[in-house]
Write a structure and sequence with these properties.
The structure is a single chain. The protein has about 350 residues and is an alpha/beta fold. It is built from 15 helices and 10 strands. The strands form 2 sheets. Strands 3-2-1-4-5-8-9-10 form an 8-stranded mixed beta sheet, sandwiched between helices. Helix 4 packs parallel to helix 5 and helix 8 runs parallel beside helix 11. The model has no long low-confidence stretch (mean pLDDT about 95).
């Protein structure tokens, strides 16, 4: 329950797997949970079957969970709004929602991505489109399919607003889903976006038959690269040792439940980028994130050999072996690079 132990009105914008899993927890916790799905046909199917067959087939949803295709009705009187929309549609939905979200509302983004044309994080998009709300981001090693199976899972909410840090863990947590707090919103959000890039790399490595030594090397050098880049952008590099950083990196880079890992695996098998994305059938956030980060790294002159090699493979026709060769012959030799 909330701090006041009163049920809250919570709107979840987005009917994908994670939005559905979070909605179900919130409903189970006794809050008034409403999930917005753009397509009325899908929303009606969810009402009738009490499942989200497209994204989480076979898992029964709480009887009190509401499904709306009318965004105004979904947002009416809400205390908390969760936005779980793919990054490419995020700003559009924020604009659509803005007239119906009251000033002071707690708004939490769960989207792990970057608006790559402008290098804008999702909470920064919300700052632009919803200037009078209290923002937070939720991130961590959180596969929705395991959350709904009640596998033990932890996440982190980051915000500069005490109300967000006190309310979200109470509203979102369950006996099997725990939410920790962090004040470094920028670092938590960067970590959640950046790790998708490196899942493409480890997926490729797996398809090529690389061993555990290689995977361990890729993971640790990815973490160093992420923190180096984030430090340049003003984030606290210690954030990357937490759930949103190393936790999410390990999960996303080692599991075929990860869309980015599966896309990398398909590319490693010889499929084109377009073929890999079509095979996944859902958003592969790491691709646009790679474009954005590579451009920003060049602008800031940040050494990111994995990003450069991945970009060359995916967009310039280089051989996949270039990723490992770049890593093995690069200029940096320092192992640990963490500073506060």
């Amino acid at each position: 329950m909330s701090e006041t132990n009163q049920p809250l009105n919570v709107a979840i914008l987005g009917g994908g797997s994670f939005g559905t899993a979070i909605s179900n927890i919130i409903a189970h916790n006794g809050h008034h949970a409403r999930m917005w799905i753009r397509d009325e046909v899908r929303a009606q199917a969810c009402r009738e079957t009490r499942t989200n067959e497209r994204y989480l087939p076979g898992y029964a949803l709480h009887d009190s969970l509401e499904f709306h295709s009318d965004i105004k009705a979904c947002l009416k009187g809400c205390d908390v709004v969760v936005i779980a929309i793919p990054s490419q549609s995020f700003r559009e939905v924020a604009k659509q929602a803005a007239p119906f979200i009251a000033p002071g509302t707690l708004v939490v983004s769960t989207t792990k991505g970057i608006e790559w044309q402008t290098f804008t994080l999702m909470s920064q998009v919300l700052e632009q489109e919803l200037p009078d709300v209290k923002l937070g981001v939720l991130s961590g090693p959180n596969f929705a399919a395991e959350i709904v199976k009640q596998q033990y899972t932890a996440s982190v909410v980051a915000s500069e607003h005490p109300e967000v840090l006190s309310t979200v863990p109470n509203v979102f947590s369950s006996g099997t889903f725990r939410v920790y707090t962090n004040e470094d919103r920028h670092g938590v959000e960067l970590a959640g976006a950046l790790k998708n890039i490196y899942a493409l790399a480890t997926g490729m490595a797996a398809a090529l038959g690389c061993g555990k030594n290689t995977v361990a090397m890729l993971l640790t050098r990815s973490l160093a690269e992420m923190s180096r880049f984030a430090n340049e952008l003003g984030a606290n590099t210690m954030t990357f040792l937490g759930l949103a950083g190393v936790g999410d990196l390990i999960l996303t880079c080692t599991s075929d439940l990860s869309r980015n890992y599966r896309a990398g695996y398909a590319i490693g098998q010889g499929k084109t980028l377009d073929e890999a994305v079509a095979e996944i059938g859902q958003a592969v956030e790491g691709i646009n994130t790679l474009k954005a980060v590579r451009e920003k790294a060049n602008e800031l002159d940040v050494y990111m050999p994995l990003v450069q090699a991945l970009y060359a493979v995916l967009f310039e026709g280089e051989c996949i072996d270039a990723i490992i060769k770049q890593l093995m012959s690069g200029e940096a030799t320092t192992d640990v690079e963490y500073d506060r």
